[in-house]
Amino acid sequence: MDICTLGPVGGDVWKWVAANSGPLGLLVAVVSAVIALSAVVRTAKDSHNRSRPMVVAEFQFAKDSPSHLDLVIRNYGPTIARNLSVEFDRHITDDSGDEWTIGQLIYRRYAGTTFHSFSPNQEFRNVWWRGQEVSGQRRQVNAFDTPESVTVALRYQDPKEKKYREEFELETGSFLLSTTATASTSLLGRLKTIDASLSKLAHSSQRLTAAVEEQDSGRGERLALAAEETAALLRKLGFDHAQENAPRPNN
Predict the structure, then answer these.
(1) Beta-carbon neighbour count of residue 129 at 10 Å?
(2) Looking at residue 3, what DSSP letter applies?
(3) Chain center to CA of 6
(4) Do residues 56 and 168 make contact, with C-beta atoms less than 8 angstroms apart?
(5) Pairwise CA distance, residues 14 & 3, whole Å
(6) pLDDT over 70 percentage in the chain
(7) Per-residue pLDDT for 48 more than 60?
(8) Nearest alpha carbon to residue 122 among 54, 183, 181, 189
(9) pLDDT in the model for residue 96
(10) How far apart are CA 37 and CA 47, in angstroms?
């Protein structure tokens, strides 16, 4: 089809395209290059994000106690983090002056300390919260001196010395609403069953021991009484007098 046979508008458009094919081609090439460069930059950024260290601060339930919360600093990234420092936005201990409280131990671990290498999957863990029952309240309170909420700031570098600073706002309140279930056929459920059975067995053993000791005590009293009665009877029969007048062997 000859483009000149198109209508006036269509013909003018095609003539303009034909006359400006060079600049249009250059424009298309520039746009394509920009798109390609943007894709390369995004790919490089995604690759860097996947390969960078990723250090996170979080609360977790303690491994062996659902009534405790741990503060966990962990490197979830695939590469090592360098020059890691940990800061808190508030005091995490009371003013008692005791250097061995939970808050003081955590503070002394991180205050002014730089960890020069923090490997992938490496973690620092400290107990932070322990539930304590309070009379007249249904909600447990923290038995330690650490606060209920805290913001943790992490500073570190990747192996190419690029710096990162990230903040994590941590709250204990959400953990207090957690619910759990334990199947009786699971390992933990069976351990609970075994523990309950052993407790019953220990209680029964204590009762049996007490009963045996009571019977042994009564038996001793009965034996002593019988011995006294036997001695009195022998004295009445004259055995005691005969024994006193009996000749004694010479030494």
Answers:
(1) 25
(2) G
(3) 77
(4) yes
(5) 7
(6) 71
(7) no
(8) 54
(9) 81
(10) 15
